Structures
1.
Amino acid sequence: MDFGERKCKILSVIIKKHIEFGVPVGSKTVCEALDISVSSATVRNEMAELSGLGYLDQPHTSAGRIPSCLGYRLYVNRLMESEFLPEEEKHFINGVLCSAADDPEHLLNETAKLLSKITNLTAVLTTPPNSEARIRDIRFVITGKRNAMLILMTTTGIVRNKLFRCDYNITEELVGAFKRVIIDKFKGKFLKDLTPESMNMLAAAESDMLLLMSPVLNALTEAAHEALEIRVKIAGETNLFATSELSSDDAIKIFKFLRNKEDMLKILFSRKRGINAFIGEEDLFPGLGAVSIITSRYSVGGRSGAVGVIGPVRMDYSGLTAKIKYLSNAVGGWLGRILEIDV
C-alpha cells in the first residue's frame, strides 16, 4: 500500500521509540518526536488507521500502540535509515578477526562469538558449501601400536581428522608408504568423488597395497564426507534468557530450532545475498513468532556462507544491520587471505 508521508513518519517514530524503550507509544510522544507540525487528534486518527491496516497493535484499551510484525516489515523494507558503524567498532572487529586468522575453523568460531558479543544476541554462522572442494594434503599421526589418525586438508581450508585401526602394527615407514599412495591417487580429487563405492572399485582394481590400506581408505572417505557438510556454529545462546521480551517457553522453542540443522539452513540460505530480515510469525516456522532473524552472506572464492543473529522481534534492526553487514564483509575478506583467494 502506498502510504502518505505523514503515516510513514508516524509509524517510524512509533517503531523507533518502542525499540528504544519497550513500551507502547502514545500520541503525545509521537507529536513531540515528529519533525512536522500536527495535532494530537490527527496523530491519534493516523494511529487508528495504521492499527486497522495491521501495522500497529494496541495491547490494552487505553494504552498506546506497538508495531506489529507487518509494521516492522514495512519499516525494514522502506522506512529504516541506514546506520554507519563507528570507526572504533570497525577497528575492534578487525582486531579480533586478525588474531583468529591463522585457520579457517578458528576464524569462523571466533566470528560467531564476536557477533554475539557486539549484539548481545544469539549469533549463528555457517561454513561455506564445500561441493567444489578438493584434497590439498593428507597427513598421518601414529597414535598407538595399531592405531593412527588421518588428517585431511582441503582446498577450502577445512581440516578433518579421522582415527583408524589396522590389524597389523603401524610403523613410520608404513605410514610413509600410506601417504605416498594416498597422495598419488587422491591429491587434487574432488571430495564429492570419494564415495565408499569408488573406494571399493579402486581397491579391487589396484595393488595389494590398497587392499592392505582398507582402514585408511575408509577413514579418508569418512573425513571427506564430514568435510563436505555445511556446519552451523552458534554462540551466545544464553542471551535468549537475558531479555524480558522472550518467555521461557519461547526460549525452549528457539533452542529446539537451533538444534535443527536442516531448518536453520533453510532460513539462512533461503534468500538472496545481502542483508535479509526474517520477522516473527510472518517469515519463520510455527512457534518462532516471538523472534526475528537478521542474516547476511559472506563470500569467499565464489562461495558464500551465512552469518546472522536471532533475538526478539523488538530489536534494533538498523544498528544490527550495520554490524552484520560489516562483519560479514570482514570475515569473507579474512577467509580469502587465509586461503590465498581473491575475494
2.
Amino acid sequence: MKKKQLFENAVQAIFLLLGLVTVGCVLLITVYLIVSGIPAIREIGLFNFLFGKEWASTAEEPKYGILPFILTSVYGTAGAILIGVPVGFFTGVFVSKIAGKRTRAVIESAVNLLAGIPSVVYGLVGMLVLVPGISKIFHVPDGASLLAAIFVLSVMILPGIIKVSVTALDAVPKEYEDASLALGATPDETFFRVSVPAARSGIAAAVVLGVGRAVGEAMAVMMVAGNVANMPSLFESVRFLTTAVASEMAYSSPGSLQRNALFSIALVLFLFIMLINATLNCFLKRNREK
C-alpha cells in the first residue's frame, strides 16, 4: 500500500509540474508580448495604431495603422467558420452515426491525411489552382484575394473539427439513442435531437479549435491572399495580422519602431485569440448551467 501511495503521489506531482510549466509558458509569452509591444503603441498612439487605415512601415513618413489587418482577420476567420464548421459538423455526424465501418475507415484516413499536410502545401495548391480559378470564374485581374484565403482556411480547419466532433459523438451513451428510438423517433431525429445536444460541449470545443487554427494561420494565407495592406474586400489582395508579422519581421531592424510595431501586432493577435476563447468558454458555461 505504501509503494502504491508513493507511486500515486509521484504521478500527481509530475502532472502538477507539467500543468505549472504550461501555465508558466503562457505567462512568459504574455509578459514578453506586453513588454515588447507596449512601447510602439505608446509612440504611435493607441487610436492611430488600432484604427489607422494605412500601413507604410518603410515609407519616408511611416504609418502604422492596423485596422485593415484586424478587419481582414475577422472577416477571413468568420468566412472560414461559416464554410468549415457546417461541413465539418455534418461530416462528423455522418462518420460517427451513419457511415459503415469501411466508409468510416476511408473518411477517417482522408481526414488524418488532411491534418498531416503542411500549411505551405495548402498554400501552394491554393496558389496554383484556386487563385487562377477565382480569377477566371469571377473575371478579376488577380485571384489572390480574401475569398481565396477563406476557401483555404475553411479546408484547413476541417480535420480538427471533424475529429473532435466524431470523438464527442462517439462518447454519447448508446442508451440515450436507444431510448429515443424506443419512443418512436427516427434515426435522424435521434442523431440531431439527442446525440448532438449530448455532445454539444465537445462540438463547441471543435469550433474553438477551428477558430484558433483559422486565426493563427500565416504561411498558407500569405501565399493566396496577395499580402497587400488593403482594406478587406472579397476580390482584392489583403493582409492578415499573422501575415503582417511574418512578412516584415525578417528585414525589420532590432529595436526600431517597425520591429516594435510588429510585436504590437502580435500582442493584438494574442489578445484577439484570448478574447475569442474567453467568449466561447463563457457561452459554453452558460449553456451547461441551463
